[in-house]
Design a protein that fits this description.
- By secondary structure, the chain is α+β, with helices and mostly antiparallel strands.
- The chain contains 35 helices and 42 strands.
- The strands form 13 sheets. A 7-stranded mixed beta sheet has the order 19-26-25-22-21-20-27. A 5-stranded antiparallel beta sheet has the order 16-15-14-17-18.
- 42% of the residues are buried.
C-alpha cells in the first residue's frame, strides 16, 4: 500500500484561504464494479461491496467531468441515462467547493440500483491515481485523472466496453483515440445516442439557457450592493456559527413548512420546550423554500404572534384551507407563539415544480419571465425562455437553480411542457410529478430486462405450478378457499379458508399471493418495485408496482386455478382463542371470487346471491357465517383492549360511457363484511409481525403507530365540552371508551358523533414503517389497532413492504423448526441489516405518503370537475365566472370548523369540504337573505326560483367563539326592509346547513370548490331565532283560495307572497308527495340489512382524514 498526499486550497466564508493536506493510501484491491469483469473471481467478489454493478448488456460506460456534474446534474438524474461512473475525483471536488446539493444528487443516482451506476474510488486506486504537476491547474489535473480512469477501464475489460467522457470544457483532442476513449459534449452525446428523446434535448437546451443566465448574473456583481437593500434578505451565517448556535440552543434547526392556507406564515418545530416557531413574511423566511432544512433565530417577544384563524381569501389556497394539522390543534385557540427568522439553510429541498406562466407574461418582449408554481407554498420562480408565447396557458415543469440575495424571486429554468392547463391528462401528469411518481411507473412501464424475468402465461402456454415446487408446499387445494373483494378486482392479494375440525375447534387460514417466489431479491423487477414502493391509485386509473403478468394473472388469487400462496393457519377454540399457528408456503385453488355485496347477502341469510352459482352458494354460506362469527369475537377482544373504531368512507366516481364525464360521486357503502375481512387481515399481520421480530430482532420490517401528541386533542376536547361531554385521552382504551359513551348518549344526534370521531382521527399521528432495531421494543405498539406488534403482510402485489415481510417470514420458517425458536435465520444482508432496513423503511414511508397525497389530489380534481358539470349552464364557457349564470347546486352539509371570518362545511354526500365566508376581505359582514328567513318562507321562495340566496344583507355584526359557534346579528335597517327575518342566527359546530357548491376558477392553479350559505337545515338544526310566529303545523293542504287565505292569516311570514305563488307552492308539494308515495325505492342498505350511511357512526372519518394527511415528526 503506497502513501501519497493531496493538497488543495479552500476559500472560507470569511474570505480567508485555507490549505488542506490529506494523506492518501493507494490500494490494489479497488474493484471495478463491472459485471463484465474478466478476472476469476471478479474483482468485486474479492472484497465486500455494497454497490450495484455496471451492467453486462450496455453499449458504453459514461464518465462525466466536473463541468457536466456541476451544471448538468439534472440531466444525469434522468432515468434513461444508466451505467455512469462517478469518479472520486469529481465527488471530492464538489465536497471541497461546498456543492453539497449536487454531491448528494449524484450519490443518490449511484444508490439507485436501477441506474446501474457506481462510484469509483480512483484517488485510492494504485495505477489510476494522478498527481498534480507543478504549475498545473486543478481543472487539467482532474481531467487527466478522468482520462486515466477511462483508459484503465478499457484495459481492465479487454476493450469490450467503449468509454465516453462527457465534458463541456474539453474536446476529443484531450481524449485518447488509441485506447478508444471518446470525448463528447452533451449535445454530441444526445444527438448520437438519444436522437428521438425530446425530453432530454429540451432539458439540455433549458439548462444551457439557465447557465447562460447564471454567467450573466455573475458578471454583474457590481450592482449587487444597490439591489440588496430592496429585498430585505440577509446573508446566511457561516456554517460553523450555525452549528455552534444550534448546539448551544441559541438557534433552532428544523424543516421549514409553509402553511398551505396562509402562505405568509411558515414554521419549524423547535425543541420540546419552545414548540412551534412561526416565521412571518418573506423577509424573515430569507430565501428559504418549503421543505428546506433551516436554522432559525428567535425574535424578541414583542413580535411573537398568534397564528391566523382566518380562512384565506386567496382562491388557490381554498382547497387546502383547514388541512394543516398544526391549525387543527393550535390555530383556533389563539395561542401566542414565538417567531423567528431564517439565518441559514442546512440543505435545500428544491424539486421539479409544476408551474404556469404568469398571466400576461407572454406579451412581454424580454426573455425572463415569472412562473407561478401549482403548489401555492412555493414562491414565484424567474425563468429564462426565448419564446414565452409557446408556454402561455400551459402547465410546465421548472426547477430552481439559485436564489441570490439581491433577487426577490429564485432563479430557475424551464424543463418541459406537460400540456394545456386544466386538461385532465395534463393535471394528472402534474399530480404525479408533484408527488415524485417516477416516469417509468407512469409512462414507460417495466424494462425489457425486467419483463424477461417474468414467467410465461399466454393462452397457448398458460402458467402451471412446477411439480418439484409442489412437493415443498402445503397442499390446500381441497380446502374451501375464497376471496372477498370490491367488484371487478383484478389484483387479488388475499383469500380465506375456514372450517370446523371437531372438538369445538376451528381451522382458520389467511392465504396471501406468494409474490416473493416470482420476484427474487435484487432482480431487476425487485429493484424497480422497491423504487416504486407502492401501486398508486388515482380516481380513474392506477399505476402498478409490479408487471401485470404478475399483478393481474399469475400472482392474483383467481378462482378455479392453482396459485402459490403464503399462508398463516390457526387452530382456534370455540371462543376464537388461538391454540396453534402455522406459517408457510402453500398451493391453493380458490373456489370463488366473491364481491363484498355477495358475501354480505350470504351473511344476511340469503340462500343464493346474484352472480354466484346456487350449488356454490350452499358451500360458501356456512363458511362465510362461521368466518363472521369468529371475527366478531376476535374484534371484540381487540376493541376491549383499546382498538379505535375508525372505518373508511371513501368516495368513488361513476363515469359516463359516452363522453367520459362524471355521472355521479358515490360514497362507499359500509357493510359488516368489510369489518370481517379487515379483522382477518389485521390478525394475520399481527401474528406475522411477532414471528419476524422473533427471527430478526434488529431488522424486522414493522408498522409503527405512535400515540398522538396530547396538544392535538385540544379541538376535540373543546368540541365535546360544548355538548357537555368529557373525553379522556390518557390512552387508546380511555379514548375509545369516551367516544363510545358519547355515541350512546347522543343517539339522536348522530352527526355530532360522526364529527367527534373525525376530530379524534385528525389528532392521530401518522403510522409508518420502521426497522425493529431503530426503536426500543416498548415503542413498537400500534396505537390505533391496540396491538403490540404489527406489520404489513397481506398485500404484496401493491406494497413493497409486504414483499420484504414475506422474505423475512420465509427466512424464519426455513431457519427454525418451529415458530417459537429464536435463531438467526438464513437471509440476505438487506434482511438482516437494521441500518439498511431502516433506509428501505424511510423510502417506503415517503412513497406511501406521496401516493396518498396524489390520491387525495386526484379526488379533489374530479370533485371540481363534477361541480363544474353541475353548475355550468348548457353553452356556458368553461372560464365564465359569472355566478348569476350558474345553475344552483345545493346540498346539505355539516359545519365542521369555526373560523374568525366564516366556517368550513363538510358535504358527506360528495366527500367535499369547503369554506363559507361571512366576513369579506374588506371587513364587511354579510349573510344571504335566505339564511335569515323563516324556514317555510325560505323553502317556498327557493322552490319558486327566487334568488334570495344571492341577495346579501350587509352590515351584520358577528361574535365568534373560535371553537364552537358564530352568532350573527342582523342590522335594524335590514329587519325593516325585509319581512320575516331573524334578528339573530347562531351557527354552531355540527349544525346542518344548506349550501350552494361553487367553483372558483384560476388561471395558474387548479380550480377550487367553495360554498355559499343558503340557510340552516332546520330539520337538523334549531339555531335560528326569528321575529315571526312559528309555522303552522304540517297538514294535508288543498290548493284553493280559501286555504291560501287562511294560511296567510295564520302565518304573517307568508304575507309577502302572492296568491298565485302560494298556490303553486302548495300544488308542487302535493305532487311531490304523491310521486314519493307511489315510487318503490330499492335501498341497498335495506337489502343487506345495514344502517344507512348517514346513520353510521363512522362514515365521515376517513373522508375527513383524506383532506389532511398528518405530517410525521420526522418529515
Amino acid at each position: 500500500m503506497l502513501r501519497t498526499e493531496n493538497v488543495h486550497f479552500r476559500k472560507t466564508n470569511k474570505n480567508t484561504v485555507v490549505k488542506r493536506v490529506r494523506e492518501v493510501y493507494l490500494r490494489q484491491d479497488i474493484p471495478c464494479l463491472s459485471s463484465q469483469c474478466l478476472l476469476e473471481p471478479q474483482c468485486h467478489q474479492r472484497v465486500k461491496v455494497e454497490s450495484s454493478l455496471l451492467s453486462t448488456d450496455t453499449p458504453y460506460y459514461l464518465i462525466p467531468d466536473y463541468s457536466v456534474a456541476l451544471r448538468y446534474v439534472e440531466l444525469l438524474e434522468q432515468e434513461e441515462l444508466t451505467n455512469i461512473i462517478f469518479t472520486e475525483t469529481i465527488l471530492q471536488r464538489l465536497q471541497n467547493e461546498d456543492k453539497s446539493r449536487t454531491y448528494k444528487s449524484l450519490r443518490q443516482v449511484a444508490k439507485d440500483p436501477r441506474r446501474r451506476s457506481i462510484v469509483f474510488s480512483n484517488e485510492h486506486c494504485e495505477g489510476v491515481s494522478v498527481a498534480r504537476e507543478p504549475s498545473e491547474s486543478m481543472e487539467h489535473r482532474d481531467w487527466r485523472a478522468l482520462v486515466k480512469v477511462a483508459q484503465w477501464y478499457r484495459r481492465h475489460l479487454k476493450q469490450n466496453v467503449p468509454v465516453i467522457l462527457l465534458s463541456e470544457q474539453f474536446t476529443q483532442d484531450y481524449g485518447d483515440q488509441d485506447t478508444g476513449v471518446m470525448v463528447m459534449s452533451l449535445k454530441e452525446y444526445l444527438d448520437r445516442y438519444w436522437p428521438t428523446s425530446a425530453v432530454l434535448h429540451e432539458l439540455l437546451a433549458s439548462l444551457k439557457e439557465a447557465i447562460l443566465e447564471e454567467d450573466l448574473m455573475s458578471q454583474s456583481q457590481d450592482s449587487v450592493v444597490s439591489k440588496k437593500a430592496g429585498t430585505g434578505y440577509q446573508e446566511y451565517k457561516p456554517m460553523s456559527e450555525l452549528e455552534a448556535g444550534v448546539k448551544s440552543e441559541r438557534f433552532f434547526q428544523g424543516v421549514m413548512r409553509v402553511r398551505a392556507n396562509h402562505r405568509d406564515q411558515a414554521f419549524i418545530r423547535g425543541d420540546s420546550n419552545i414548540g412551534e416557531i412561526v416565521i412571518v413574511g418573506s423577509e424573515n423566511r430569507n430565501r428559504a423554500v418549503h421543505g428546506d432544512v433551516v436554522v432559525v433565530e428567535l425574535l424578541n417577544k414583542a413580535s411573537w404572534v398568534a397564528p391566523s384563524t382566518h380562512i384565506s381569501y386567496n382562491p388557490e389556497e381554498i382547497h387546502t384551507a383547514g388541512d394543516d394539522d398544526e391549525e387543527v390543534s393550535h390555530h383556533r385557540l389563539r395561542e401566542v407563539k414565538p417567531t423567528g427568522r431564517v439565518v441559514g439553510v442546512i440543505s435545500r429541498n428544491w424539486q421539479p415544480y409544476v408551474a404556469t406562466l404568469q398571466e400576461g407574461s407572454e406579451k412581454d418582449s424580454g426573455s425572463f419571465h415569472l412562473v407561478l408554481p401549482l403548489n401555492a407554498v412555493i414562491p414565484k420562480i424567474r425563468i429564462r425562455h426565448h419564446d414565452a408565447k409557446v408556454l402561455a396557458n400551459q402547465r410546465i415543469v421548472v426547477r430552481i437553480d439559485s436564489w441570490p440575495i439581491h433577487s426577490q424571486y429564485p432563479n430557475g429554468h424551464y424543463v418541459r411542457s406537460l400540456g394545456p392547463a386544466h386538461n385532465l391528462d395534463t393535471e394528472i401528469s402534474a399530480i404525479l410529478i408533484e408527488h415524485g411518481i417516477s416516469v417509468s411507473q407512469t409512462t414507460q412501464g417495466f424494462s425489457d430486462g425486467s419483463l424477461k424475468e417474468m414467467p410465461i402465461n399466454t393462452p397457448e402456454q398458460p402458467w402451471r405450478p412446477e411439480p418439484a415446487e409442489l412437493t415443498k408446499r402445503r397442499d390446500l387445494r381441497k380446502h374451501v378457499v375464497f376471496s372477498i373483494d370490491p367488484p371487478n378486482c383484478q389484483d387479488i392479494d388475499d383469500a380465506i379458508s375456514i372450517r370446523e375440525i371437531g372438538n369445538g375447534q376451528i381451522e382458520f387460514g389467511v392465504h396471501i399471493a406468494d409474490v416473493s417466489y416470482f420476484v427474487k431479491e435484487n432482480s431487476l423487477t425487485d429493484l424497480e418495485a422497491r423504487a416504486r414502493g407502492t401501486t398508486v391509485y388515482l380516481s380513474d386509473r392506477r399505476f402498478d408496482m409490479l408487471p401485470k403478468v404478475l399483478s393481474e394473472q399469475i400472482c392474483s388469487l383467481r378462482h378455479h386455478v392453482d396459485r402459490y400462496a403464503m399462508s398463516v393457519m390457526w387452530t382456534l377454540d370455540s371462543e376464537a382463542n388461538v391454540l396453534s399457528t402455522w406459517f408457510g408456503r402453500s398451493i391453493i385453488r380458490s373456489a370463488c371470487e366473491m364481491e363484498y355485496e355477495q358475501a354480505q347477502g350470504l351473511l344476511n341469510g340469503k340462500e343464493v346471491v346474484p352472480g354466484v352459482d346456487a350449488k356454490l352458494c350452499k358451500t360458501l354460506k356456512p363458511a362465510v357465517v362461521l368466518l363472521a362469527q369468529t371475527m366478531r369475537k376476535v374484534r371484540a377482544r381487540r376493541m376491549a383492549s383499546g382498538g379505535l373504531e375508525l372505518e373508511s368512507s371513501e368516495v368513488k366516481f361513476k363515469f359516463k360511457e359516452e363522453d367520459g364525464g362524471i355521472s355521479d360521486i358515490l360514497p362507499k357503502q359500509p357493510l359488516e363484511v368489510h369489518q370481517i375481512i379487515e379483522e382477518a387481515m389485521v390478525m394475520a399481520n399481527s401474528y406475522v409481525a411477532k414471528r419476524i421480530y422473533d427471527g430478526f430482532r434488529e431488522s424486522a420490517m414493522l408498522r409503527h403507530h405512535p400515540p398522538p401528541i396530547e396538544s392535538h386533542f385540544k379541538m376535540l376536547l373543546r368540541a365535546a365540552e360544548s355538548r357537555g361531554f368529557t373525553i379522556d385521552t390518557s390512552s387508546n382504551l380511555a379514548l375509545a371508551t369516551s367516544l363510545r359513551d358519547c355515541a350512546n348518549k347522543s343517539s339522536n344526534d348522530i352527526e355530532f358523533v360522526k364529527l367527534l370521531k373525525t376530530m379524534a382521527t385528525m389528532a392521530m399521528s401518522e403510522a409508518s414503517y420502521i426497522s425493529s432495531g431503530s426503536k426500543p421494543v416498548n415503542e413498537y405498539a400500534h396505537y390505533g389497532l391496540a396491538l403490540e406488534f404489527y406489520t404489513h403482510f397481506t398485500s404484496p402485489i401493491r406494497r413493497y413492504a409486504d414483499l420484504v415481510v414475506h422474505r423475512q417470514l420465509m427466512a424464519c420458517v426455513l431457519g427454525a423448526p418451529n415458530e417459537k425458536t429464536s435463531v438467526s435465520p438464513p437471509a440476505s444482508d438487506l434482511l438482516k441489516n437494521g441500518s439498511k432496513m431502516e433506509q428501505v423503511a424511510n423510502h417506503l414511508n415517503y412513497k406511501n405518503r406521496e401516493s396518498k397525497l396524489a390520491q387525495k389530489d386526484s379526488t379533489e380534481l374530479f370533485q371540481t370537475l363534477y361541480i363544474l358539470q353541475k353548475t355550468r349552464r348548457p353553452g356556458q364557457e368553461v372560464n365564465d365566472d359569472d355566478v348569476d349564470e350558474e345553475v344552483p347546486f345545493t346540498e346539505t352539509g355539516i359545519i365542521s370548523e369555526i373560523r374568525e371570518n366564516g366556517f368550513f362545511v363538510f358535504v358527506p354526500r360528495f366527500g367535499i369540504k369547503g369554506p363559507v365566508y361571512l366576513k369579506e376581505k374588506s371587513g364587511d359582514i354579510s349573510v344571504p337573505l335566505s339564511a335569515l328567513q323563516e324556514p317555510a318562507v325560505a323553502k317556498a321562495r327557493f322552490s319558486l326560483g327566487n334568488k334570495d340566496h344571492l341577495t346579501l344583507v350587509h352590515g351584520c355584526q358577528m361574535d365568534t367563539d373560535l371553537m364552537t359557534q358564530i352568532a350573527v346579528k342582523v342590522p335594524q335597517e335590514a329587519l325593516a326592509a325585509h319581512q320575516g327575518l331573524a334578528k339573530t342566527i347562531q351557527l354552531r359546530l355540527f349544525d346542518k346547513v344548506k349550501v350552494a357548491l361553487r367553483l372558483k376558477k384560476s388561471h395558474a392553479h387548479r380550480h377550487s370548490i367553495y360554498m355559499t350559505l343558503i340557510g340552516l337545515d332546520h330539520e337538523g338544526s334549531t339555531s335560528i331565532r326569528a321575529n315571526v310566529p312559528k309555522p303552522v303545523p304540517s297538514r294535508r293542504l288543498v290548493g284553493n283560495k280559501d286555504e291560501v287565505k287562511r294560511i296567510a292569516e295564520q302565518d304573517p311570514a307568508l304575507v309577502p307572497f302572492t296568491e298565485r305563488e302560494l298556490l303553486q307552492g302548495i300544488q308542487a308539494g302535493e305532487e311531490d308527495k304523491k310521486k314519493k308515495k307511489g315510487r318503490k325505492v330499492v335501498d341497498p342498505e335495506e337489502l343487506y340489512h345495514q344502517t344507512r350511511p348517514e346513520a353510521s357512526l363512522y362514515s365521515l372519518i376517513d373522508a375527513f382524514d383524506r383532506f389532511r394527511i398528518i405530517e410525521s415528526s420526522s418529515s
